[in-house]
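Structure in, sequence out. Go:
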């Protein structure tokens, strides 16, 4: 039987609007508009030289017009410049859903799919298209196109990539995917043994009504996944003890309604779960912390308050020294009324 990991909604704590003195002295604001006029759904990756690449959907909508995913670079999260497009969409299609990671050589690996028949915008005839792969050996400046790399699931859709692509204990790359036909949705952990060129093993995480499984490798054979459920719009937690080959349910977080989640193992051993909260009078990016490997979770903490329900899809990275950079998307705020990728700076000690 699944456990309800949050049967009672705790009082929501919030970050102060002003950052700690250490961040101020280092020149990092609490919050800023990082990449403008994009719906983004950002994925952040730290390269071996310490710089950051953000892979984002490059149109200010939910994939209703032609577009691609682009790569942007920053040395510190304050200032960003566009490197170029990762994907090359065909006419009347859009490439937007993406998973991103680094392989053993430090090369960027992207999986991406989208929709067809969108001219002038997506309609009842539009369908998901095949997931293609791309590799970059130069930090996102140029990309090798690999073509289709994942199959369609019978009766559902093509495999849709999501979240971080991570290295397993045995050296494989592991990515989270889902295949769906609402309200049904299956989530999977797919594997590559050749640095992201081909994906040969598909392990189901859950076959029910799930979508967008965020996965994290905790070390050894232990993994966690957090997936949004269709209809319920909460998060279900899954665990693997055999290096992401098999999975079992570990509980449900009653945090609805949510956007997708992100999981990050922090340098102090705790796990940071972030997600977008979309309740009518309660919108923003929230966090919860686990100090016991995902078995239990602390009270929610509001990292940034947002007025617009069209928000969420957070992604977080940690820098040496304990600074955390959180990216998210939102369709406008009072001070900046366009789609954009926003970022928030905080410290490890502020998470509780």
């Amino acid at each position: 039987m699944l456990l309800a990991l949050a049967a009672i909604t705790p009082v929501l704590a919030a970050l102060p609007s002003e950052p700690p003195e250490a961040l101020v002295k280092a020149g990092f604001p609490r919050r800023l508009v990082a990449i403008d006029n994009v719906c983004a759904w950002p994925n952040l990756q730290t390269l071996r030289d310490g710089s950051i690449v953000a892979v984002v959907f490059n149109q200010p909508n939910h994939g209703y017009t032609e577009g691609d995913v682009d790569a942007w670079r920053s040395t510190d999260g304050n200032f960003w410049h566009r490197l170029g497009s990762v994907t090359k969409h065909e006419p009347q299609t859009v490439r937007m859903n993406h998973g991103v990671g680094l392989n053993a050589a430090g090369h960027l690996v992207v999986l991406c799919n989208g929709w067809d028949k969108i001219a002038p915008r997506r309609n009842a005839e539009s369908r998901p298209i095949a997931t293609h792969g791309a590799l970059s050996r130069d930090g996102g400046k140029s990309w090798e196109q690999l073509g289709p790399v994942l199959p369609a699931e019978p009766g559902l859709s093509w495999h849709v990539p999501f979240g971080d692509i991570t290295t397993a204990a045995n050296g494989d790359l592991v990515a989270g995917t889902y295949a769906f036909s609402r309200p049904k949705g299956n989530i999977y952990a797919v594997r590559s043994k050749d640095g992201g060129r081909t994906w040969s093993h598909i392990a189901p995480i859950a076959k029910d009504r799930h979508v967008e499984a965020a996965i994290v490798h905790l070390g050894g054979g232990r993994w966690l996944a957090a997936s949004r459920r269709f209809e319920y719009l909460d998060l279900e937690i899954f665990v693997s003890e055999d290096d992401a080959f098999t999975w079992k349910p570990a509980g449900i977080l009653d945090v609805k309604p949510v956007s997708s989640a992100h999981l990050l193992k922090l340098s102090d051993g705790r796990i940071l779960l972030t997600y977008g909260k979309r309740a009518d009078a309660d919108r923003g990016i929230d966090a919860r912390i686990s100090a016991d490997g995902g078995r239990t979770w602390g009270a929610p903490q509001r990292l940034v308050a947002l007025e617009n329900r069209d928000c969420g899809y957070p992604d977080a990275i940690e820098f040496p020294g304990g600074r955390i950079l959180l990216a998210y998307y939102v369709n406008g705020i009072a001070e900046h009324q366009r789609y954009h990728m926003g970022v928030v700076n905080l410290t490890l000690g502020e998470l509780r």
